[in-house]
């Protein structure tokens, strides 16, 4: 032992002699960094910490810049920013290795050029969002913050890794777009990824715990201040002495000689230390428990010297200093060397060799990466499976095992048959698991993203979760379909009755927008009571009472002589068929007089004369617009034109207000619509004036009707959409159908006003005045939170939701709302802004089919509804009773739809109502034939058929509103509804005119057309997806996920895995679970 110690001392002395011989104060270095005052430029350039960074710039950055300029476009300017940023950081690192670390304020000033460049890169990307190279710019913008590692401590390496993963998202999109088109872009992605990876390696090697500053030298301050402080003598003192002369030049081959000598001495030293350690410890034995002083206090007391005073031990560098033995002088402890600049030790590796082995009764699956064929088949009930640190892999476990544990795994898919005890996820991310048979318990702990697919035999599985997020369980139903249910992430504990605490799960982020009690849907529906009543005034104010030709100004309908004279001048059926064969006999006798009949001449005349004035029946109406402008006979087209202009206003309003509400919001469009309705109502009331003449009065009137129709569509559609968007799936049906209730209630209210105000002028004026109070609805109605979030107005959306939560007397879940915002931002990153707009409804195949299909359904239902409703007043002799009966039938239809839609969904009930209408519409033909043959009870039977037709037409008309609103995504929902409503107005015009035009060809032609189109509509709607209890789609991708129910094969739908795959490339693909068992 003594010989070895002497040998070590000799080696140490030799090393110290070599160091003193070849070193000088001028060339001393600390921690590998030269002294700031005397280091030369060559010495700086040869430092590994600077040399390796230069290598990154020359071998990684420069090729990337060349590739960017080769692609050209917006990348040229971006490449200049990147070049300036790396150059500035290179100079900063040179400055750091020569200086002590300054304070935070000085560091902020020093790195200002770098921060300015990073900010410029971000701003440049945002300004060029419509650029065809936007994905390239975003990849740089997301990854360039990695150069901020100089301010991250003590772990700058993970910071660079996070930025690399953020840039990988857009890099994958570039690969996906140009992988098969242009290899230049693929090479560009490789070079950018190489820069970030090389930077990460460099930081891990030279700046493990943060930027390495020099431990010696001056602080990095402004150079002018340093010069001033050095040259200027102190006040009142003598000048400083001159500096010492420069040292002599070092001998040639200094570095090589020194390195060779040091290497030889180091090897001898380590060999001696190893030999010394083996010799010193070879004879040692294990200390038994009875001799351990920490387990036997009496041993410590017996070994302590009586005169020794106990006290705290001294520590140097975290280790206690052993006190000297008695009788020996205490030597001063040697100074402790600390390393403050660079830690060159590498961190412990987290990866290892891939492993899939059975050790005893435990299967070990470790460090597997990008392996989707991992399969464990030889299992039994005693085996447990431990999956550790696997990435982007799929593991299939066949047979029944005891337990499965997944620890620190990322993007791993697990499929297993059966487990005896539990399956546990710990510290995992983006996991998917599929159960083939049974599992009693699933435990999820500290895991972000876990989606479980259960089988029909494992529905009783218990879930235990803690400190986890984004969890869901998928339940099988139907033919290979799954219904997703979220697992609560937050809970609320309440003390009730002062005895027990109760735990309640809080709503997850998907339901943050769902509000069950809010009053906005009531206000929207209440507004529709008056708004939807005003357009119906046309039925009363423009009604056509019974009329005949007026013989003179003194014509008295109750005078017997007048009736005798009129009878002699009414054309006979023979005259009407001979001279007016294009019109019916009834219309000929009401609109024409025989010119050659006198009071004493009984011979038949041969000419007919059109009436110039008419006498109207005042049994039910005091005055109507038809009477005011004599819009009968040859002038009946003026009435038809007024109705066509009204429906044309419906068409324009549906499209214009639908697009505007999607762009500017639901609330402002409703406010504008309320104002236009009030203005147009007064214009319709006061436009017909004798002093203005017929042409001007009629033009102002139809202008008012046009504006009224436009604005009523703005209120109806926008109010319907905002009501549906503000509630959850369970309340959407009530919110959608309640507007239809108020539509029928509005008809009853209109009936009451029309009964008491039988003059068109009084009726219009009264309803115009009643429209004024609804202007305040704008100030009570909130903006749709769903629309604000889809447009990025997150603060406004939060404000509205907090107000709703206050009214509902519930707490606002701010964490869930922030998570919702994060998901929405990710969703928006996938969707280009150029896709937002009108044409987005026609770019996707599925969205295109749904848009055309639903538009056709709207056309048919408006054709049927308005065609049937036009004859409502002719059911009975009294128009008020007929109109009231029609309104009551509508309420019954809406109530039936409300009950049935909760049970069987939208599509099934819609098909049932449309088919029922078609069947009874076709039955009208034989019933009408029986009426002609004089069959008894025809009037009652026809009344019953008309009621049934009105019932089915109203039901299908109400369902298509709800169904269409749930199929269009939020980003273009109002636009889609507006397009459908615009096309529906064509159907409404066709339905209104068909009773006049088609009936002239064949009396039963209109009702047959209505029945046939209903059958065609039913056959088309069957391919649309069902929306019962499903969340409203936010984007077109959500509609694609719903898919189409094609009749020639299985339902076409995208699984969640497939949707993820579309947004990933081969380099960053989502996990795919193998199919089998109960899953399709």
From TrEMBL:
Segments of this protein annotated with the region Disordered: 227-255, 289-353
Biased composition (Low complexity): 328-337
Any GO BP: cell morphogenesis
Segments forming domain Major facilitator superfamily (MFS) profile: 598-1029
Main location: membrane
Domain spans labelled C-CAP/cofactor C-like: 347-487
CDD domains for this protein: MFS_SLC22
PROSITE patterns linked: C_CAP_COFACTOR_C, MFS
Membrane-related topology note: Peripheral membrane protein; Multi-pass membrane protein
Compositionally biased spans, kind Polar residues: 338-351
Transmembrane parts of this sequence: 641-660, 669-688, 700-721, 733-755, 761-781, 840-860, 880-901, 908-931, 943-964, 1001-1024
Protein name: Adenylyl cyclase-associated protein
Biological classification of the source: Eukaryota, Metazoa, Spiralia, Gnathifera, Rotifera
């Amino acid at each position: 032992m003594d010989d070895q110690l002497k040998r070590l001392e000799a080696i140490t002395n030799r090393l110290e002699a070599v160091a003193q011989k070849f070193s000088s104060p001028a060339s001393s270095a600390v921690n590998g960094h030269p002294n700031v005052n005397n280091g030369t430029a060559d010495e700086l350039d040869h430092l590994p910490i600077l040399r390796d960074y230069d290598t990154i710039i020359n071998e990684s950055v420069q090729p990337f810049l060349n590739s960017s300029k080769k692609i050209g476009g917006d990348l040229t300017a971006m490449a200049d920013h990147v070049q300036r940023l790396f150059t500035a950081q290179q100079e900063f690192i040179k400055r750091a290795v020569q200086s002590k670390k300054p304070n935070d304020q000085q560091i902020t000033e020093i790195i200002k050029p770098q921060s300015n460049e990073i900010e410029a890169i971000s701003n440049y990307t945002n300004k060029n969002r419509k650029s065809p190279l936007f994905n390239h710019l975003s990849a740089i913008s997301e990854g360039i913050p990695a150069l901020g590692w100089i301010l991250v401590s003590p772990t700058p390496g993970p910071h660079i890794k996070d930025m690399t993963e953020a840039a990988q998202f857009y890099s994958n999109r570039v690969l996906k777009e140009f992988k098969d088109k242009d290899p230049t872009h693929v090479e560009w992605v490789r070079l950018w990824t190489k820069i970030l990876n090389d930077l990460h390696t460099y930081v891990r090697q030279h700046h493990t715990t943060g930027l390495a500053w020099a431990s010696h030298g001056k602080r990095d301050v402004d150079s002018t201040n340093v010069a001033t402080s050095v040259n200027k003598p102190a006040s009142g003192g003598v000048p400083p002495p001159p500096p010492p002369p420069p040292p002599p030049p070092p001998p040639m081959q200094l570095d090589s000689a020194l390195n060779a000598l040091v290497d030889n001495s180091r090897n001898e030293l380590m060999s001696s230390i190893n030999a010394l350690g083996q010799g010193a410890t070879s004879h040692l034995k294990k200390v038994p428990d009875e001799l351990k002083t920490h387990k036997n206090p009496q041993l410590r007391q017996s070994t302590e010297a009586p005169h020794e005073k106990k006290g705290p031990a001294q520590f140097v560098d975290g280790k206690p200093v052993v006190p000297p033995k008695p009788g020996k002088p205490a030597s001063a402890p040697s100074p402790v060397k600390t390393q403050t600049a660079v830690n060159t030790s590498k961190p412990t590796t987290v990866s290892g060799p891939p492993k899939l082995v059975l050790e005893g009764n435990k299967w070990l699956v470790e460090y597997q990466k990008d392996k989707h064929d991992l399969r464990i088949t030889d299992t039994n009930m005693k085996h447990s499976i431990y999956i550790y640190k696997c990435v982007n892999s799929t593991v299939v476990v066949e047979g029944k095992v005891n337990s499965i544990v997944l620890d620190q795994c990322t993007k791993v898919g697990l499929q297993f048959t059966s487990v005896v005890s539990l399956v546990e996820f710990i510290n995992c991310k983006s996991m998917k698991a599929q159960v083939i048979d049974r599992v009693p318990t699933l435990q999820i702990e500290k895991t972000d993203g876990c989606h479980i697919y259960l089988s029909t035999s494992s529905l009783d599985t218990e879930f235990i979760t803690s400190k986890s997020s984004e969890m869901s369980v998928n339940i099988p139903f139907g033919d290979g379909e799954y219904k997703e249910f979220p697992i609560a992430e937050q809970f609320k504990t309440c003390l009730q009755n002062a005895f027990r605490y109760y735990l309640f799960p809080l709503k997850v982020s998907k339901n943050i927008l769902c509000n069950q009690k809010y009053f906005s849907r009531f206000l929207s529906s209440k507004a529709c009571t008056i708004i939807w009543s005003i357009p119906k005034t046309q039925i009363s104010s423009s009604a056509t009472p019974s009329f005949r030709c007026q013989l003179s100004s003194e014509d008295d309908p109750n005078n017997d002589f007048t009736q005798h004279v009129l009878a002699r001048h009414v054309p006979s059926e023979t005259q009407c068929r001979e001279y007016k064969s294009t019109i019916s006999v009834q219309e000929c006798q009401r609109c024409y007089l025989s010119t050659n009949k006198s009071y004493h001449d009984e011979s038949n005349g041969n000419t007919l004369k059109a009436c110039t004035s008419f006498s109207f029946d005042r049994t039910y109406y005091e005055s109507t617009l038809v009477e005011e402008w004599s819009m009968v006979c040859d002038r009946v087209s003026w009435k038809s034109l007024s109705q066509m202009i009204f429906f044309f206003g419906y068409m324009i309003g549906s499209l214009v207000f639908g697009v505007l509400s999607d762009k500017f919001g639901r609330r402002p469009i409703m406010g504008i619509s309320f104002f236009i309705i009030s203005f147009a109502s007064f214009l319709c009331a006061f436009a017909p004036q004798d002093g203005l003449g017929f042409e001007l009065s009629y033009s102002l009137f139809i202008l008012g009707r046009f504006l009224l129709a436009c604005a009523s569509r703005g209120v109806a559609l926008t109010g319907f959409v905002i009501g549906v968007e503000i509630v959850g799936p369970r309340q959407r049906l009530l919110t959608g159908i309640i507007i239809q209730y108020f539509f029928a209630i509005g008809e009853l209210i209109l009936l009451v006003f029309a009964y008491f105000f039988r003059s068109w002028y009084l009726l219009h004026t009264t309803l115009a005045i009643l429209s004024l109070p609804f202007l305040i609805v704008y100030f009570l109605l909130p903006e749709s939170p769903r629309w604000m979030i889809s447009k990025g107005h997150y603060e406004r959306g939060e404000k509205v939701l907090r107000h709703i939560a206050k009214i509902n007397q519930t707490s606002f879940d701010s964490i869930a709302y922030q998570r919702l915002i994060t998901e929405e931002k990710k969703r928006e990153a996938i969707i280009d802004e150029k896709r937002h707009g009108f044409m987005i409804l026609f770019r996707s195949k599925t969205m295109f089919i749904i848009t055309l299909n639903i538009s056709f359904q709207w056309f048919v239902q408006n054709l049927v509804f308005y065609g049937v409703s036009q004859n409502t007043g002719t059911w009975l002799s009294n128009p008020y009773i007929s109109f009231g009966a029609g309104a009551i039938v509508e309420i019954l239809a809406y109530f039936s739809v409300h009950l049935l839609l909760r049970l069987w969904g939208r599509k099934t009930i819609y098909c049932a109502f449309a088919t029922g209408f078609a069947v009874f519409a076709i039955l009208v033909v034989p019933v009408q034939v029986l009426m002609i043959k004089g069959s008894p009870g025809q009037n009652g039977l026809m009344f019953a058929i008309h009621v049934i037709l009105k019932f089915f037409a109203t039901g299908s008309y109400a369902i298509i509103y709800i169904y269409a609103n749930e199929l269009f995504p939020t980003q273009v929902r109002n636009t889609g509804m507006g397009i459908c409503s615009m096309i529906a107005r064509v159907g409404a015009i066709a339905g209104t005119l068909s009773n006049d035009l088609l009936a002239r060809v064949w009396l039963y032609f209109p009702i047959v057309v209505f029945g046939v189109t209903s059958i065609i509509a039913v056959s088309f709607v069957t391919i649309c997806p069902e929306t019962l209890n499903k969340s409203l789609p936010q984007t077109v991708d959500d509609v694609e996920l719903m898919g189409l129910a094609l009749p020639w094969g299985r339902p076409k739908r995208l699984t969640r895995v497939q949707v993820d795959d579309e947004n990933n490339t081969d380099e960053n693909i989502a996990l795919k679970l193998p199919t089998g068992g109960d899953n399709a």
